[in-house]
Amino acid sequence: MDTSLTIQDRLKQIFDALGITIYQIAKELGENPSKFYNILNGRAKPSYDTIMSLLACYPQISADYLIRGIAPVLNSPEANARIMVAEDDTIDVPFIPVKFYATFVESYSDTVSSSDIEHFRVRRPLIKGQKNTVVLEISGNSMSPQLAHGAKVLAMPVNENDWEYQSGAVYAVMYRDYFVVKRIRDNELLTRKYLTLHSDNPNGGNVTVPLQDIRGLWKIIAIVEAPVE
């Protein structure tokens, strides 16, 4: 056991042995690449969920090495041989690109089921059994740095009966003829019958939406593709 190496050091060795980039790892796990840059630079520590996701996504990583520093780094004898994701470990999800926003708003129903809609392939573990999930393309930089223009995110619909309980996370909100991705901080649907939608970027601005104008709500649950900035 090598106790002189921090978990950040061991992660660097593991990524080198796998022969993959931080961007590739973040994409596979549905995470923002900046999260892993912060971990490797010592500004943050990997959470239990992050460690478990890595081990599940890359079974050739030695859990003993990652957690306790006991060699070898990889379970596989081929240090750079990466186990590919099996076809049955992925699923095609309806994809709503920016250019389709207007059409999506016009033809919106409870289920996205158009046969000619585009699809995006994501890993099944990201779905977590949720139904009617969609992949959305982010428009603009109002949610940067977490969500940059062109990023693709996985979103799950929120039942209308649960709208009033949503707070803190990032959501796609359809209201009137608009479709935006914002953070819900002030949910006053119960008390004042409106939502305040916030931009993470200070220059992005906020918007207040009355309950009667809201047509749909989706919670962003994962980043499935992020542009290199």
For the record, give the distance between the C-alpha atoms at the N and C termini, rounded to a whole number.
38 Å
| N-to-C SSE string, H for helix and E for strand | HHHHHEHEHEEEEEEE
Q: How much helix is in the residues?
A: 10-25%
- How many strands? 9
Task: Give the uncertain stretches in residue-range form.
Answer: 78-87
Alpha-beta classification: alpha+beta
Q: Which percent range describes the beta-strand content?
A: 25-35%
Largest sheet: number of strands, sense, barrel closure: 9 strands, mixed
The mean pLDDT is 84
Taking all Cα atoms into account, the compactness measure Rg is 20 Å
Counting H and I runs of at least 4 residues, what is the number of helices? 7
Categorize the overall geometry: elongated
State the strand order across the main sheet.
2-1-3-4-9-5-6-7-8
Polypeptide structure, described:
The chain is an alpha+beta fold and 229 residues long. The chain is 24% helix and 27% strand. It is built from seven helices and nine strands. It has a nine-stranded mixed β-sheet with strand order 2-1-3-4-9-5-6-7-8. Strand 7 and strand 8 form a beta hairpin. Helix 2 (22-29) crosses helix 3 (33-40). The chain is elongated, with a radius of gyration of 20 Å. The protein starts with 6 loop residues before the first helix and ends with a strand. Mean pLDDT is 84; it is low at 78-87.
Name some characteristics of this structure.
single chain, 229 residues, alpha+beta, nine-stranded mixed beta sheet, elongated
SSE layout and pairing:
Blueprint: H1 7-18, H2 22-29, H3 33-40, H4 48-57, H5 63-68, E1 90-96, H6 101-106, E2 119-123, H7 124-127, E3 134-137, E4 152-157, E5 170-175, E6 178-188, E7 194-198, E8 206-210, E9 214-225
Parallel strand pairs: 1-3
Antiparallel strand pairs: 1-2, 3-4, 4-9, 5-6, 5-9, 6-7, 7-8
